[in-house]
Amino acid sequence: MDATTQGQSFADWLRLQMAAKGYAVDGPRAGGPSLLARQIGVHRATISRILKDGAIPKAATLRAIADQLHIPRSVMLDAAGVSDEERAGSGPEPPAEPDSSADANEDPEPDPAVLFDGGLRNDSEKAIWAITALPWQARQAAIEATRTEARRILAERTVDKTSTRRLA
């Protein structure tokens, strides 16, 4: 398998893994790649190059992705086609799924009243927050995106009303 085919195959595999863990990866406003990039400390273009261009990142980035998605490092490195020489610094495998001791070290889910100014404003935001299969950061991003879109629509309506009044 050539490098381009390997990279695209890995990109497809990673996209499925991300979707299975609740990251939105498809669509024009999918925030999953940006969220994953923030969580592992890389630029969002790194994740974009992996998913769109089939680029294979450095082993350290692959290990960080594996740890964040709770995928065994060896599985991630195999999927990316990383050679044994590049694996040298992979270290011990973390647990495939977080155990109760890992939960104490993770960010606890914040209270939405504290996270959002004024708390959850409507039933749509409450429904988004109730999707516990998504990480709280992804739910936060979805709610912020809906608020941004609502502000944009309101601004457009205000401009339309103002221009209609001027014409009359």
TrEMBL record:
HTH cro/C1-type domain: residues covered: 36-76
SMART domains per record: HTH_XRE
Family matches, as Pfam families: HTH_3 (PF01381)
Region described as Disordered: spans on this chain: 77-119
Protein's name in the database: Helix-turn-helix domain-containing protein
Species for this entry: Actinomadura violacea
Lineage, highest ranks first: Bacteria, Bacillati, Actinomycetota, Actinomycetes, Streptosporangiales
